[in-house]
C-alpha cells in the first residue's frame, strides 16, 4: 500500500465520534446535530424532476469534460454571478462535487519531479481535504494560522521568504470554513502578485459563496477579483459546488473554472481518473445552475436563523458574525473546546464540532483550540432551540 496513507490524520468527525463515545446524552431532549455542514433545507422539486428526466442518459458513457449544455450553464452562471466571460470549452469543467476536485487537483498540480516544488500552503483551521491531498501528492503542507487578532486572514508575511519558490499550490477558502471570512480585493491583489512572482497555482475554494446576508453585496469571488485587476485567470482555478447553494449534497455536483492551460492538464488527469459525471446528474445540474430563485430563498432561510440565534448566544459565547457561510466560529468559556463539546452533548443533546479538530499545531499553536464550529443547517426552530440549550449549558456551568 502507498506509505503516504500512514500520514493521514483521522477525519474530524471520526475524532468527534471517539470524543462522544460512551457519553450518554440527556434522554429527555431530542438530538440536535450542528456539527457537520450538511444542508438540511429541502432539495427543490425542479432539480429532482430534472434528475429523473435525465435517466435516459444512463444508456450512454458520459465524457469527462461534461456536456456542452452543462459547461454553458456553468459559464452563464459565472457571468451573472461574477461578471466574467468564461470560454465553456476551455475554462470550465464539471466535477463530482468540490471535495473530489479539490483533492484531485493537488495530484495534478504538485510537481513531484522537482524536489524543490513540493510545498502546498493552506489556511489553518482548514477543510481537511487540503491536507490529505497534499500528503498523498507527495508534498509537504505549510499552514497559515487564521486568528482573531489578524481578522482571520491568511498572513502571507508569515511565509518564510526562502519557501516561496518551493510552493506549487496555495489553497484558499473564501468565504472561509469555519470562520466565514471573505477575502477583500486588496488581499487578492497581494496573493495574485505572489503567484505571478513565484509561479504557483491558486486553488480557490468558494463552495460557501452563495450563503450570504446582504443581497446588495455578495462575497467577492476570485474570478471577479482577478479580472478587476486585469490579469484574467492566470494561475487561478476556482472550485464551487451545488451542495450548499442548491441543497443537493447527495447529488455530488460542482464546477471548476479558471486558467485554460491549467484546466487542460487537469482534464487530462481526470480522463484517466474516471471522474465523468452521470448524464442524469448533469441534467439536474443544468437546471440548478440556471435558476436563482431557489438560491435566494435559501439565503433568506439562513439569514433568518442567524438573526434569531446570534442574540441568544451573544452573551454566553464570544464570536464575530460571519461575512458569509452558515457557521458560527465561537470561542468557548474555559478554553477547552473538546470538553465543551462533550459536556454540551451530555447535558443538552446538542452536537457541535471542537475547533481543534479542524486545525493543526503551527507556529507554536493550534488556532482552533478554544473554539467550536456551530453549523446552522437545521430548521429555524431546531437552531433556536439548540441556541437556547447552549445558553443554558454555559449559564449553568458558570
From TrEMBL:
GO terms for biological process: lysine biosynthetic process via diaminopimelate. GO terms for molecular function: pyridoxal phosphate binding; succinyldiaminopimelate transaminase activity. It is an enzyme of class 2 (transferase). Its EC number is 2.6.1.17. Pfam families: Aminotran_1_2. Residues 32-390 form the Aminotransferase class I/classII large domain. Its cofactor is pyridoxal 5'-phosphate. CDD domains: AAT_like. Keywords: Aminotransferase, Transferase. Transmembrane segments: none annotated. This is N-succinyldiaminopimelate aminotransferase. It comes from Thiobacillus denitrificans (strain ATCC 25259 / T1).
